[in-house]
Amino acid sequence: MFTGIIEETGTVLEFAESETAYRLKLAAKAVLQDLQMGDSIAVNGCCLTTIAFDHESIAFDLLHESVRLTSFQSIQPGDPVNLERSLRFNGKIGGHFVTGHIDATGSVSHAERRGKDLFLRVEPPPEFLKYVVYKGSIAIDGVSLTVAEVDDSGFAVWLIPHTLQVTNLHALQPGSLLNLEFDLLAKTVERLLPGQRPIQRSAD
């Protein structure tokens, strides 16, 4: 479980397919503190398991399905990625509960500077819009954000200068692919309603 409050941005060092999995290696600093083998790290909002690390890098194995159903399909060496360690029982919850299991990818339709802030509009697959609520929470590439607008084809959020400074969202352009995790509460309520079947995908 995560909070959507990014601890640092890492840099992709390697991303390549092997015989058994995709290997992702990142340069990092903050998330390496007290790290243990097998610890969970959210990388652009996707919960991954640490399989190797040293004093300046960390590595993960990804399933083919995880790559296919997330924005990792377009990742390249040199790209910045958002990193967050899993929630600790004595930690603060500054965002909202984020599982690290990506529901879908969305495409940026607008990324415009308006004053000091950035207006970001995202178009998810149409079937997922029912989970987006005005003033509700959403995780975009692992960042906990508040929905500012919703229409028939997408939603918008505002990014303050601090968020742009400490995450990779400052680099977004129209057409950029994003990992989306919708509010767990909305999905749980849907599951409990009689006759309702939530959308199911096999992504992490």
> In CATH, what is the class of the largest domain?
Mainly Beta
Sequence stretches where pLDDT stays below 50 over 5 or more residues: none
Radius of gyration: 16 Å
Q: What composes the largest sheet?
A: 7 strands, antiparallel
> How would you state the average pLDDT, rounded?
92
Counting copies of identical and different chains, the oligomeric state is: single chain
- For the terminal residues, how far apart are their CA atoms? 13 Å
Q: Identify the strand order in the major beta sheet.
A: 10-9-13-7-8-12-11
Helical residues, percent: under 10%
CATH topology of the largest domain: Elongation Factor Tu (Ef-tu), domain 3
Structural class: mainly beta
**What proportion of the residues form beta strands (DSSP E)?**
35-45%
Number of helices: 3
Would you write up a description of this structure?
By secondary structure, the chain is mainly beta. 10% of the residues lie in helices and 39% in strands. The protein has helices at residues 64-68, 161-166, 184-192; strands spanning 8-17, 22-27, 40-43, 46-53, 57-62, 80-85, 104-114, 117-123, 137-140, 143-146, 149-150, 155-159, 177-182. The strands form two sheets. Strands 10-9-13-7-8-12-11 form a seven-stranded antiparallel beta sheet. Strands 1-2-5-4-3-6 form a six-stranded antiparallel beta barrel. A hairpin with a 2-residue loop joins strand 9 and strand 10 (143-146).
